Amino acid sequence: MEIADILTPQCIVPKLSATSKKQALQELAKRAAPVTGLKDRFIFDALLQRERLGTTGVGYGIAIPHGKIQGIDRLFGLFARLEKPVDFDAIDEQPVDLLFLLLAPETAGADHLKALARVSRLLRNRAICDKLRGSSDADALYALITESNASFAA
Question: Is 112 a catalytic residue?
């Protein structure tokens, strides 16, 4: 599984405006709704439910909100760069500006975990994150995420 299998160029948001974690999750859900065919409220509720289990803010300005959702038949990804970092209750208590949303079918099992691991490995690379923070062009962000992924095979 490659990140390009779950992330399309239309699922790159180079300048997401949000002033809080809740608003960031709402905006992600709103943008994921047309791609998944689900209502944004349904996606938002699933993300909130997951956040109640523990933050998806993994540190270094990165969050990987994710959830298993009824009604989809494959994994979906969406990458967003926040215009301004927001408090995300991250484990290092630093604000978040890079978000990678991952939605999986309820029956995804290991595929969901493999996708999470792949995204996590990619975003642990500080050089890649610096480049992601330095670009506001959706095509460049997509290329960086999908081409960089090749060197992080699972």
Answer: no
